[in-house]
Design brief:
The complex is a heterodimer. Chain A is α+β, with helices and mostly antiparallel strands. Chain A folds into two domains: about 5-230, P-loop containing nucleotide triphosphate hydrolases (Rossmann fold, 3-Layer(aba) Sandwich), CATH 3.40.50.300; about 235-355, Nucleic acid-binding proteins (OB fold (Dihydrolipoamide Acetyltransferase, E2P)). In chain A, about 25% of the residues lie in helices and about 35% in strands. Chain A has helices spanning about 40-50, 90-100, 105-120, 135-150, 165-185, 195-200, 220-225, 230-235, and strands spanning about 5-15, 15-25, 30-35, 55-60, 65, 75-80, 155-160, 185-190, 205-210, 210-215, 240-245, 250, 260, 275-280, 285, 300-310, 315-320, 325-330, 340-350, 355. In chain A, the strands form four sheets. A six-stranded mixed β-sheet of chain A has the order 6-7-8-3-9-10, sandwiched between helices. Chain A has a five-stranded antiparallel β-sheet with strand order 13-12-11-14-20. In chain A, strand 11 (about 240-245) and strand 12 (about 250) form a beta hairpin. In chain A, helix 2 packs parallel to helix 4, helix 3 packs across helix 4 (about 135-150) and helix 4 packs parallel to helix 5. The longest helix of chain A has 18 residues, at about 165-185. Chain B is mostly helical. Chain B folds into two domains: about 1-55, no CATH class; about 60-275, Orthogonal Bundle (MetI-like fold), CATH 1.10.3720.10. Chain B is globular, with a radius of gyration of 23 Å. The chains are: A alpha+beta, B mainly alpha. The interface of A and B includes residues 89, 98 and 146 of A.
């Protein structure tokens, strides 16, 4: 078991810098997710930790030791790839035991450890099959089995669930969580799916264009996004974000709609400031159908025309026209709504976010 | 297979085309084999008829086998072909791996340089090769032939294998690296087994010209001890008189070893293709 720390870690391809000197401390046994849109440098970062990608600057430490110049095999890590990367010409048993065989362990020990790992992942009945005879979910489990057999200090996951269908993905997500509870090792998990990151990890690292935008627990990044980007990236459906100008205690939107300035920001902005107003769909709802109904402290209601609805059974996503563009609201205990209906929409401004339009950083204290 | 191709009319048409081609391709071989079992007169009188009780005559084979050195010729051909094949596959695969796997300056240029030999016939360099072999004292040795054939086979091998190796997933090689494999083991244990169909293809394309070659054995190793089968068979072809029985028998015999090798490789080839199909 080990900590992982990145110190001013940089990756350049020629003159092009992909990762710009990021710092990160991963605690022992922590499950940390690197999340971000494609091209944000998360996979490159993971591959630098693994030793598959040369480090252009800074350092990677595993267990307090700089591993920059160690080959992958000497870092005591294991990695699960998006494409599973099982050896097609070997059986499941051989796949899982291969690293131990290479390390020169005895036949008995290999068999024992493969069996143990297979038991954890419920793979015992598949051990003599070849990867081509397995389903996607089974291959994924074998890939994880191959990783745990080595008993590594750090597990690295590179978008392991992206190739699975939606249902299987949810199922495997739970399995990975259970697995981490069992093997209790440090995990660095790369994904572009914020739901995976939220559900699995102890802390989330949100990356964008080779920089870290925010590091925090799922709760922190959801409730207190540090930047406009994080606010828009985390949460589904995404947060409603609108540019506005502060005018004497109000937020003025481009087409003339106004909302009171949320109380928590009154001392933090001045008239004339350009800001981005953010409100989660959970905090906008047809009056009486809200998540926090009865507990709000700073609610403002507006009459808005419905453009479209997306019924999900237990709730309905209501798209209503707010200042010339759609705003998403979550309606609990839904009642039927048609497009064109006027709806009295409540805005729970105590939950609102404001970001500087210039820097994109939160204006929260 | 799609429905359309399995309809009877299409299937018959496709088979007709294939059978026609097969007949055309096999006819000369068939002719050689049947005539090798006939007496000299009947070869000329009715070259297309099968050997019957009256025309059957194994004289060609007895002549060839009596010419005691023929086993030696076979042995020489086999040694030259197998060793050259091994070297072509080994070095070709290694060069292909380097070209497909590692990013280095001049990678593309190196690839083009190595593939250049596909377009330039090695025979153009015969005089220089002969001078080289004379200078290094390799004339009339099998080594000379092996070296030349290895050089001759490498360009195509590198070209084909590099293309195939590019298709082996990077994740797989990286998984190997993390599992503790050295670059050599990744090459031998992961990549080579996965490009086996390509290796078989290269082997077949490399092997046949080597086995059939008359040019280099004639120039570089014409001594009695180093003659290959193709060269050996030429002793029956004279300027004025040709012992057709013996020539045909020798050629028939020469087909056998190469046929065996071909069957071995083509089985690999088919296995490779089908295992890819169900993946």
């Amino acid at each position: 078991m080990a900590t992982v720390s990145l110190k001013k870690l940089t990756k350049r391809y020629g003159p092009l810098e992909i990762v710009h000197g990021i710092d990160l401390e991963v605690a022992d046994r922590e499950f940390i997710a690197l999340v971000g849109p494609s091209g944000c440098g998360k996979s490159t970062t993971l591959r630098m930790i693994a030793g598959l990608e040369e480090i252009s600057g800074g350092a990677v430490e595993i267990g307090g030791k700089v591993v920059n110049d160690l080959p992958p095999r000497s870092r005591n890590i294991s990695m699960v790839f998006q494409s599973y990367a099982l050896y097609p010409h070997m059986t499941v048993r051989e796949n899982m035991g291969f690293s131990l065989k290479i390390a020169g362990r005895s036949q008995d020990e290999i068999a024992k450890r493969v069996d143990e790992a297979a038991a954890i992942l419920d793979l015992n009945h598949l051990l003599e099959r070849r990867p081509s005879q397995l389903s996607g979910g089974q291959r994924q489990r074998v890939a994880m089995g191959r990783a745990i057999v080595r008993d590594p200090d750090v597990f690295l996951f590179d978008e392991p669930l992206s190739n699975l269908d939606a249902k299987l993905r949810t199922q495997m997500r739970t399995e990975i969580k259970k697995l981490h509870a069992k093997v209790k090792s440090t995990v660095v998990y790369v994904t572009h799916d914020q739901v995976e990151a939220m559900t699995l990890s102890d802390r989330i690292v949100i990356m964008r264009d080779g920089y870290i935008e925010q590091v925090g627990t799922p709760d922190e990044v959801f409730k207190r996004p540090a930047t406009r980007f994080v606010a828009g990236f985390i949460g589904s459906p995404p947060m409603n974000l609108r540019e506005a100008i502060v005018t004497d205690g109000k937020l003025a939107f481009p087409n003339g709609t106004k909302l009171p300035l949320p109380r928590q920001f009154r001392d933090r902005v001045a008239a004339g400031d350009k800001v981005v107003f953010g409100l989660r769909p959970d905090d906008a709802y047809p009056t009486g159908h809200g998540l926090h109904s009865g507990e709000e402290t700073d609610v403002h209601a507006l009459e808005l025309p419905v453009t479209v609805t997306e019924p999900l059974g237990n709730e309905t996503l209501v798209f209503a026209d707010f200042d010339g563009a759609d705003l998403v609201a979550r309606m609990l205990n839904p009642r039927p709504l048609k497009s064109g209906d006027k709806v009295n929409m409540s805005f729970d401004l105590s939950q609102a976010h404001l970001f500087s339009a210039e820097t994109g950083r939160t204006l929260r204290a | 297979m799609s429905k359309a191709t399995s309809s009877p009319v299409r299937s018959v048409a496709a088979h007709a085309v294939l059978i026609t081609y097969t007949v055309i391709a096999l006819f000369p071989v068939f002719l050689i084999v049947i005539n090798s079992f006939k007496s000299r007169n009947s070869i000329f009188r009715s070259p297309l008829s099968l050997p019957g009780p009256e025309t059957f005559d194994p004289i060609g084979y007895t002549t060839v086998l009596k010419q005691g050195d023929f086993f030696l010729y076979f042995q020489n051909s086999l040694i030259v072909t197998v060793v050259s094949l091994f070297l072509v596959l080994l070095f070709g695969a290694m060069a292909a791996f380097a070209l497909s796997e590692y990013r280095f300056k001049g990678n593309t240029m190196m690839g083009l340089y190595l593939a250049l030999g596909i377009m330039i016939p090695i025979r153009l360099g015969t005089v220089a090769i002969l001078q080289l072999m004379v200078a290094s004292g390799l004339v009339n040795t099998l080594t000379a032939l092996i070296l030349v054939y290895t050089a001759q086979g490498l360009p195509l091998a590198v070209f084909i294998l590099a293309e195939f190796m590019k298709q082996v997933s990077d994740d797989l090689k990286n998984a190997g690296r993390i599992d503790g494999l050295s670059e050599y083991r990744i090459f031998f244990r992961l990549v080579l087994p996965l490009v086996r169909p390509a290796m078989a293809t290269v082997a077949v394309f490399t092997m046949i010209p080597i086995w059939n070659d008359l040019w280099f054995p004639l120039i570089l190793a014409p001594s009695e001890a180093t003659k290959t089968v193709t060269l050996g068979a030429q002793i029956f072809i004279g300027q004025y008189v040709t012992n057709w029985n013996a020539v045909l028998a020798a050629l028939s015999l020469a087909i056998l070893p190469v046929l065996v090798l071909y069957v071995i490789f083509s089985r690999q080839l088919i296995r490779g293709i089908t295992s890819g199909a169900v993946k």
